[in-house]
Specification:
- The chain has four domains: about 350 residues, TIM Barrel (Alpha-Beta Barrel), CATH 3.20.20.80; about 60 residues, Oligo-1,6-glucosidase, Domain 2 (Oligo-1,6-glucosidase, domain 2), CATH 3.90.400.10; about 35 residues, no CATH class; about 70 residues, Sandwich (Immunoglobulin-like).
- The protein is about 30% helix and about 15% strand.
- It contains 16 helices and 22 strands.
- The two termini are about 25 Å apart.
- It binds 1-O-alpha-D-glucopyranosyl-D-fructose and calcium ion (CA).
Length: about 550
């Protein structure tokens, strides 16, 4: 376990929408370099860079065609080297995104496999014959529809692609595939990056023989335990650790699709020889039906009670199972946190701050996503504005397979589409939010005129300045990253509260998650203690405590 990397603040950049340096409407690496001073001023320690490798953009970089070169629209290898060295000068580390469950169908390995049935690359992937004029099995793609795509010009032949049909699943059972992945890791680590976020790393192994899931059921089935956290996945990650990761001091984070705390311990517990941190997605799936984010049966209604349950389940599990979590409420796959869990209208400022305070006061490593530090919000996106394959595909699937009327299907997608997270970063109130001098590849949220970095830099009361305070507080005391956590007021319907402590220090955190005034009795001991964080002016610490909508306070008890 690497204490210094875990006790650090990570800022996620989705490069396409971060900053455009050369006026083509697309964010790029030089654009990131231009903003390094801003990131330094914020106080972050590490950048997690969503994929910047050559990609045909079927899944905006998560479909990689060449792992050793940079996407030309983002720049060149030289630009990447400059980014690494300029970041180093500012004491900022770079974590790249390893997408190795699948490659793009344009990757030379896959192209070779298509061209020549006898090529060794055929076994880099899953090519299988269909059964009874149907796909080889009944697995569903995580983006809807069958997980199999028919090979053109070949009879009855399919390949496996658990995401888009252009993201072809790699066969990790093939040792040559694994050594190619290790080569990629070493190449970038030697170039000076300090770690990897590993895309869907817990589904790299698939059940032997690729059998039907729930064969008696009709329709495509989620393969579930046939792909998630199989024993072999652990084996392969351990091999990667032995051969590469253990030689580098950086941070290796796994993206866990449907993981349990017991599995998290195996992936990243303090005795694990696999990774350093894990993300879980339970909070992101709150209010969704059992089929996931486009399962609208619960109408995305969620309660603070459920939110608290998930929160404490994982925070306590991280202690009981001896691992650390990557704590986040936003990323490139989910709508904006303030729009979902806060109130982006009447309480925009305070609710954005309340949510940020939760991320930073939690046990583990805080991750913030570009724009979260200024409280960027969701936007009403028309069908023409959608850029994401998942949104476009699931719009069809919802109508044809789930028989939803068009209007409802549209509302479901609008609410949950990943495009919400991908509108350009709002730097200033000049045209296109200062992201670019030309019309960007994607619509800019019109609220850039008042939600933007330059306004917030000069406003003491801004979300941006609050984020800076949270970062300082988190970094100053390792108690936040590593200390114990004890829930308080578990039964309270609006209040999310807990104690954070170790041998030497102790804090109490109170967050009103609602838009109402709430009341509770404050422990007498805390009344004269130091208030170290608050999102309203003049909070009073009194026994008959009243908290205003989305008020958050942190008291240093010891
Ligand atoms: O996401 C994996 C994942 O779990 C997705 O299915 C996620 O649930 C989905 O985006 C929800 O809408 C990772 C990446 O973060 C995502 O951007 C990629 O599209 C995906 O893997 C495939 O590489
Ligand atoms: Ca550009």
């Amino acid at each position: 376990m690497k204490k210094s990397s875990i006790h650090s603040v990570v800022y996620q950049i989705w490069p396409r929408s971060f900053n455009d340096s050369n006026d083509d409407g697309i964010g790029d690496i030089q654009g990131i370099i231009q903003k390094l001073d801003y990131l330094k001023y914020l106080g972050i320690d590490q950048i997690w860079l969503s994929p910047v490798f050559v990609s045909p953009n079927k899944d905006y970089g998560y479909d990689i065609q060449d792992y050793y070169n940079i996407q030309p629209e983002f720049g060149s290898l030289e630009d990447m080297d400059i980014l690494i060295s300029e970041s180093k000068k500012r004491d900022i580390k770079i974590i790249m995104d390893l997408v190795a469950n699948h490659t793009s169908d344009q990757h030379p390995w896959f192209q070779e496999a298509l061209k020549d049935k006898n090529s060794k690359y055929r076994d880099f992937y899953f090519f299988r014959e269909g059964k009874n004029n149907q796909e080889p099995n009944n697995w569903i793609s995580l983006f809807g529809g069958s997980a199999w795509t028919k090979v053109k010009n070949e009879d009855n032949m399919y390949y496996l692609s658990l995401f888009t049909p252009q993201q072809t699943d790699l066969n990790w059972d093939n040792p040559e595939v694994r050594s190619e992945i290790e080569k990629i890791l070493r190449f970038w680590l030697e170039r000076g990056i300090s770690g990897f976020r590993m895309d869907v790393i817990n589904i790299i192994s698939k059940k032997e023989g690729l059998p039907d899931k729930n064969p008696h059921k009709k329709g495509y089935q989620f393969a579930d335990d046939y792909i998630v956290s199989r024993e072999k996945s652990h084996e392969y990650i351990q091999e990667m650790y032995d051969n590469v990761l253990k030689d580098y001091p950086g941070l290796f984070i796994g993206e866990g699709l449907l993981i349990s705390p017991e599995q998290a311990r195996r992936y990243c517990g303090s005795n694990s020889k696999e990774l350093d941190l894990m993300f879980h997605f339970d909070t992101m799936l709150i209010g969704c039906g059992p089929l996931g984010k486009y399962d609208f049966r619960k109408l995305y209604r969620w309660s603070i009670k459920e939110f608290k349950e998930i929160y404490f389940k994982w925070q306590l599990a991280s202690i009981n199972h001896d691992f650390y979590l990557g704590n986040f409420l936003s990323n490139h796959d989910n709508g904006r946190a303030v729009s979902r869990f806060g109130n982006d209208k009447a309480f925009h400022n305070v609710s954005a701050k309340a949510l940020l305070s939760l991320i930073f006061m939690s046990r583990g490593t805080p991750f913030i996503y570009q724009g979260e530090e200024i409280g960027m919000t969701n936007i009403k996106l028309d069908v023409e504005d959608w850029k994401d394959f998942e949104a476009i595909n699931d719009y069809e699937v919802l109508q044809t397979m789930m028989h939803l009327p068009k209007g409802i299907a549209k509302r479901v997608i609008q609410k949950m589409t990943r495009d919400q997270a991908r509108t350009p970063m709002q730097w200033s109130d000049s045209d296109y939010g200062g992201f670019s001098n030309v019309k960007p590849w994607m619509i800019v949220n019109p609220n850039y005129s008042y939600i933007n970095v330059s306004h917030q830099q000069v406003d003491n009361n801004s979300i941006l300045n609050f984020t800076k305070l949270c970062i300082e507080l988190y970094k100053k005391d390792p108690c936040f990253a590593f200390g114990q956590i004890e829930p308080l007021y578990l039964e309270h319907k609006q209040l999310l509260a807990f104690r954070r402590f170790n041998e030497s220090t102790e804090y109490v955190v109170y967050i009103n998650m609602s838009n109402k005034y709430i009341h509770f009795k404050l422990n007498n001991e805390y009344i004269n203690k130091e208030l170290v964080l608050s999102n309203y002016s003049n909070p009073l610490l009194i026994e008959k405590m009243i908290m205003r909508p989305y008020e958050t306070i942190v008291i240093k008890v010891k």
